[in-house]
Every structure is written in structure tokens, then in C-alpha cells.
Design brief:
The chain is mainly beta and about 120 residues long. It has helices spanning about 35-40, 95-100, and strands spanning about 5-10, 20-25, 30-35, 50-55, 60-70, 75-85, 90, 100-105, 110.
């Protein structure tokens, strides 16, 4: 699968302050990764720490918090990992699904995808 970047805006849940980021679309990542220095500029600090398994198998604890995420005209509350200052932003699957978006790696873009529901019996 090809890797590509998109512009995402991260901000407070009230939608008052946002910062634009160039994020790598990472469908192998559960959550979105936002550098801690970006969150601090918005006045957003970690709310708790959670364990994560890295690609090399190591377990690490990172701060997480709820933020507002915006791509195009779509907005959603989403949980993000507070990443290392200055690191690359990653757009993870949870945020993509909350926004109703999917990755089209061939054309290097995000596409609208319908939600899936199972009919209750």
C-alpha cells in the first residue's frame, strides 16, 4: 500500500482554535498521533496515559486526549496520542472512520465511505 499525506485540522472540542497539520495516512495505526508541541500551542494537555504496542513489539505508554478533528467540511471529536514534540503527524483509522472517510492509496486521497450497520433481529 502506498503512503500519502493529507491536511487535517486539530483543535479544541468547542471548535474555537485549530491548527493545520500535514499528516501521513496510516491505516495500520489505530489512533491519530499529534506531536505534543502542537497540542500545547492549542492549550491541550494529555488527559491520561495508555499502553500501546509499537511495530517492533515494545509496549510504551503515551498520553492521550480528546480533541476536535476536521477534514474538509467534516468535524468529529476523536481521541489522539500525544506524540513526541516535532514528530510527524499520523492520521489513524479511528479518526478516519469517525469522519466517514477511507484511504484510496492508488489515487493518494481520502474518499467518503458509508457506515456499516447490522440489522437487529
Amino acid at each position: 500500500m502506498g503512503a500519502f499525506h493529507v491536511t487535517i485540522e486539530i483543535g479544541d472540542l468547542g471548535g474555537r482554535r485549530f491548527e493545520r497539520l500535514d499528516a501521513l495516512v496510516d491505516t495500520g495505526a489505530t489512533y491519530t498521533w499529534v506531536p505534543q508541541d502542537v497540542l500545547q500551542r492549542l492549550g491541550l494537555e494529555p488527559e491520561e496515559k495508555r499502553p500501546f504496542i509499537l511495530a517492533d513489539g515494545r509496549e510504551m505508554y503515551y498520553g492521550v486526549r480528546w480533541v476536535g478533528a476536521r477534514i474538509g467540511g467534516r468535524f468529529t471529536p476523536t481521541i489522539v496520542i500525544c506524540g513526541h514534540p516535532g514528530s510527524e503527524s499520523l492520521l489513524g483509522v479511528v479518526t478516519l472512520e469517525e469522519l466517514g472517510l477511507g484511504a484510496d492509496p492508488v489515487n493518494e486521497r481520502l474518499i467518503s465511505v458509508p457506515g456499516r450497520l447490522k440489522r437487529a433481529s
